[in-house]
Amino acid sequence: MLLKALALNCTLKPDAGDASSTDAMIAVLQQAFAERQVTLTETVRVAALDIRPGVTSDEGEGDDWPALRAKILDHDIVIFGGPIWMGQISSVAKRVLERMDAFLSETDDEGRMLSYGKVAVAAIVGNEDGAHFSSAQLFQALNDVGWTIPAVAVCYWVGEAMGSVDFKDLKDTPEMVTKTAKMVAGNAAHLAGLLQSSPYPG
Prior knowledge:
Rossmann fold; 6 strands
């Protein structure tokens, strides 16, 4: 079965021309997913879009969420990427989670949310503590709105406390990051394939 992944880069930098450590971590996962025959079709720089505040699937004229929502739901796996700020996930990531709240009421005839049968993993980077807390925030929220979280679902890197080196500036990807990325991709691809062939019951 052919599987597709979409990456959401929730960096605070809206300009795709600005280098992002989140992009660098997503690239590590992209390679790992390619080894599992999963195609990463696109990385969306969320801050470049006008994602309006709210908890519905369309907050009116100019809202870019409906198009991004359709893109998300057209994929089997979402890579939810973002930096750690103040020990937690970025405000951009929280905005995406808030908009997914609408999934709770947008169910099919069997009572399943539109995100049922889809898998979510995380790519977290930062130069401060918070990788575990950030992934916990993401996974609880995503699970609440119907996403399935595989075993070993986060690939992260945290630099030295109060340091100045970013993940994107490393000369080589740390061995444990590469190893973890392979586990994340392998488990996510396996689970997405199972859910594609055998959906959740209503």
